[in-house]
C-alpha cells in the first residue's frame, strides 16, 4: 500500500517536470531488450546513409546553406505529430496492452536556456545525442569526447536539478 502511495506521489511530481511518466511496469528477461539493440543498429545505418551523422551536413544546417537537415527534422516532426494525433484519437495502446498517456507540460524559462546550450553544443561539435554512436561507428572516434561530454552534462544536470529553474 505504501509503495502505491509513493509511486503516485512520484508520478505527480514527474508530471510537473519534463521527465517521462509513461514507464512500463512490466518486467522482462534481459534478452527481451535485444530487439532494441537491433532497431538501434538499423537506425544508425539509416542515419549514416541519410547523412544525418555527417558533420558537414550539420554545419551546412547551422550556416543556413542547405535544406537537407531541415527536411529530415521537419519530416520527423510531421510524423511525430501525426502519430500522437492517431494515438489520442484511436486510444492506441502499447503492444502489451498498456495505456499511452499524454500529460501536459508547463513551459518554463529553463527550457529556453537548455535549448540554447543544446543548440550551441550541437553547432560546435557537429553532433547531437541521437547520432553520437553512429558517428563513432563510422570511425569518427573523436566524437567519443562529445559522448563523454554529454554524459558529464547529464550528470551535472542531475546533480544540480533541484537548484535549477523548472
Give the SSE map:
Blueprint: H1 2-16, H2 34-49, H3 55-62, H4 68-90, H5 109-125, H6 132-137, H7 143-160
Describe the protein in words.
This protein has helices at residues 2-16, 34-49, 55-62, 68-90, 109-125, 132-137, 143-160. By secondary structure, it is an all-alpha fold. It has one domain. Helix content is 62%, strand content 0%. It is built from 7 helices and no strands.
Features:
166 residues; mainly alpha; 62% helix; 0% strand; globular
Strands, total number: 0
What number of domains? 1
- Note the gap between the termini: 30 Å
Number of helical segments?
Answer: 7
**Percent range for β-strand residues:** under 5%
Helical content stands at 55-70%
Rough outline: globular
Low-confidence stretches: none
Task: Specify Rg, calculated over alpha carbons.
Answer: 19 Å
User: Which structural class do the helices and strands define?
Assistant: mainly alpha
Largest sheet: none
Q: How confident overall, as mean pLDDT?
A: 85
Order of helices and strands: HHHHHHH
Keywords: Membrane, Transmembrane, Transmembrane helix
Protein name: Sulphur transport domain-containing protein
InterPro entries: Sulf_transp_TsuA/YedE
Transmembrane segments: 34-56, 68-87, 112-134, 140-160
In short:
This protein is mainly α and 166 residues long.
Amino acid at each position: 500500500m505504501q509503495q502505491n502511495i509513493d509511486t503516485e506521489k512520484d508520478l505527480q511530481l514527474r508530471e510537473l517536470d519534463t521527465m517521462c511518466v509513461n514507464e512500463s511496469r512490466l518486467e522482462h528477461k534481459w534478452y527481451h531488450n535485444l530487439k532494441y539493440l537491433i532497431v538501434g543498429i538499423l537506425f544508425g545505418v539509416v542515419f549514416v546513409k541519410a547523412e544525418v551523422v555527417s558533420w558537414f551536413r550539420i554545419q551546412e544546417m547551422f550556416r543556413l546553406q542547405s535544406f537537407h537537415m531541415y527536411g529530415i527534422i521537419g519530416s520527423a516532426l510531421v510524423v511525430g505529430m501525426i502519430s500522437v494525433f492517431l494515438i489520442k484519437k484511436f486510444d492506441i495502446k502499447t503492444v502489451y496492452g498498456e495505456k499511452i498517456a499524454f500529460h501536459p507540460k508547463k513551459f518554463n524559462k529553463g527550457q529556453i536556456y537548455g535549448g540554447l546550450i543544446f543548440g550551441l553544443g550541437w553547432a560546435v561539435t557537429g553532433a547531437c545525442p541521437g547520432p553520437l554512436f553512429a558517428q563513432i561507428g563510422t570511425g569518427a572516434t573523436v566524437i567519443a569526447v562529445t559522448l563523454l561530454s554529454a554524459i558529464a552534462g547529464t550528470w551535472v544536470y542531475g546533480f544540480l536539478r533541484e537548484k535549477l529553474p523548472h
